[in-house]
Every structure is written in C-alpha cells, then in structure tokens.
Amino acid sequence: CVVKLFGSNDRATRSRLLQQLEHFIDHLQPSTVNDQIFPQVANGFMDTNPTIREQTVKSIIHLASKLNYNNLNVEVLRHFSRLQSKDEQGGIRTNTTVCLGKIAQHLHPQIRQKVLISAFIRAMRDPFPPARSAGVLALAATQQYFLLSEVATRILPALCHHTTDPEKTVRDNVFRTIKGFLGKLEKVSEDPALRESMGRSRLHGMIVVGRNIVAYL
After folding, report:
1. 205: left (phi > 0), else alpha (psi -120 to 50), else beta?
2. InterPro entries annotated for this entry (predicted)?
C-alpha cells in the first residue's frame, strides 16, 4: 500500500508520505526501499514545487541507511550536487548541505573523501548567508573524515577567507570552527604519537560549533 502511495501523482499525498517517512521506514526492507520506493522519491528532486523538492532532500536522512551503493553514492549525490549549486531556493540549497553532512556516515569512504570538502566549500561561496553557515557547520560536524593534510591545505584556507564574511553569524561560526581545527592540529604537532593513534592521519573527536548542524532544518 505504501509503495503504491509513493507513486501517486497527488502532491499532497507525496508530501505527507515524505513528512511521515521516519515513522515507517524501519519497517521496510532495503530491497523494497531501493527498487520500489527510492525511484519514486527521487522524482521529487526534480519537482517544480519547492516544498516537494525540500522534503525530498530531507527524506534522504531517513532513507540513507537502507540505500544501496548506486542509489546513495551516485544518484543521491548527483541530485544533491545540482540542488546545492543551482536551486533557486536558498533554503533548499542550505538544507541540501545540512543533509549531506548528516548522511556522510553512510557514504562509501572513497566517495566521502572525494565529495565532502568540495561540497562544503562550494556551500561557503553561496550568496545566501544560511547556506554559507551550513557549509561551515558541516565541515565541523564531519571533521573526523578529513586527512590532516586536507585540513591544512584545503579546509583552513577556505575558512580563513570567510573571516571577513559580511554576515556576523557566518563569521562567528567560521572563527569557532577554525579554532577547533587548529586546536586539534596543534595537539597532533605536540604529540606525534597521537597522529599514529588516529589512524590514516584523520582528526577524531568532534568540534562543537553552535548547537548542532540541523538548526536550519
């Protein structure tokens, strides 16, 4: 019954399903989600109605753990990339970044390493201030996936560029995030053994910035 409803042409029905997804997704088999539900949900990424597009983006938070490699690492990320950079709605661009940060744990490690930093730095260039803040907060929330060399050569330079951002909220998030990254790099510098214990030279432990990354959602 639920599967058939996802194929409905009625936007109100699809909207309600997307809003209630978190309450029944655990009862669905991964095969059902991937073969029957996700293809219908994915149509929402292209919907002309901004509300449907935004709800579709948010729904991936609940679907991600059940999606197969191709649906998550190829299809979802393809749509996310387009929405984050081209959607006319600032709120959708913002929430796409937020959701990418929240599903990062489910991405394939090689895809995650390739995609996250570029996506979050792109968000930091957005003309919409909340989107820039989302990029900053997403970097902080996913920092355990970044190599030390990436922090030093890609992330910190990008963050420093925004210490003069026109919006104080963005600047505040940037300064807190920079301090967090620098503090962890300094600890590694002072204690070489810590670098080895981190494994593959990644930063572990969370940098706390503000309350949490899902504030805009």
Report:
1. left
2. ARM-like (IPR011989), ARM-type_fold (IPR016024), CIK-Related_Protein (IPR051177)
